[in-house]
Design goal:
Elements (H helix, E strand, L loop, with lengths): L12 E4 L2 E4 H5 L3 E7 L5 H19 L2 E7 L3 H15 L7 E3 L4 H5 L24 E5 L5 E6 L8 H16 L2 E2 L10 E3 L5 H8 L3 E4 L2 E4 L5
Parallel strand pairs: 3-4, 4-5
Antiparallel strand pairs: 1-2, 3-6, 6-7, 8-9, 9-11, 10-11
Helix pairs in contact: 2-3
Length: about 220
């Protein structure tokens, strides 16, 4: 079974390119993005890892830690990092997990729990379901799960957009509409009564009784 929104993200201890970590301790009180890869030295993942390295300041600014995972050994990750820098202009500046025994991939529902063996001899096609993005909140609960096919590179600008929404809606009683970007109008959450909304927001636009539009809250 895969993870669902609201589930506790499984804790684990793992070897990474930045030493051994215990996931929940490594997160601390931060948000985190865990994004996974089916195999080292694969073309689309190479572009993704370089892009994340370039975007890291944007994640840092939001208080979000980045961690990658690939179903290969850490030594392979370190060799791959040079290829990533050579071709993408940036090498990973965040830890990369070595999941050689497949334990984390299975715990996160990316591989069947009854998968046997290790990463040895497995092809990218064998691990094609290990192409997920998990956003985890400071409460260690899963806030978003994205699953991509091997042939489609991920859009990490969208991941940043979702984080902006998640962090805003965790703090204020609002929801964000389609294609919303930080700074645009938002919708008062359906759980807020009109009486409460008057106290919190004052006035709002109401094209329909269930659509109450206000400027994005600040602070």
């Amino acid at each position: 079974m895969g993870l669902s929104i609201g589930d506790i993200a499984p804790d684990f201890t793992a070897d990474t390119t930045e030493g051994e970590i215990k996931f929940h301790d490594w997160m601390g009180d931060s948000w985190a993005v865990l994004f996974s890869h089916p195999k080292d030295f694969t073309p689309i993942c190479t572009t993704e890892l370089g892009r994340m390295a370039k975007l890291k300041p944007e994640f840092d600014r939001r208080g979000v830690k980045i961690i990658g995972l690939s179903v290969d050994a850490v030594d392979n990750h370190k060799a791959w990092a040079q290829d990533i820098e050579d071709t993408q202009g940036a090498r990973p500046n965040y830890p990369m997990i070595g999941d050689t025994d497949l334990a984390i991939s299975k715990a996160y529902g990316m591989l069947p729990a009854d998968t046997e063996g290790s990463c040895e001899g497995r092809t990218p096609a064998d691990n094609q379901t290990v192409r997920n993005v998990f956003i985890v909140g400071p409460d260690k609960k899963v806030k978003l799960v994205l699953v991509y096919p091997m042939t489609t590179g991920r859009n990490f600008d969208e991941v940043l957009r979702v984080i902006d929404s998640l962090q805003l809606t965790a703090k204020h009683r609002v929801a964000t509409p389609v294609d919303w970007k930080s700074g645009e109008d938002v919708v008062i959450a359906g759980s807020v009564s009109n009486d409460e909304a008057k106290q919190i927001f004052g006035e709002w636009k109401e094209p329909k009784p269930y659509i109450r539009i206000v400027p994005q809250p600040t602070g």
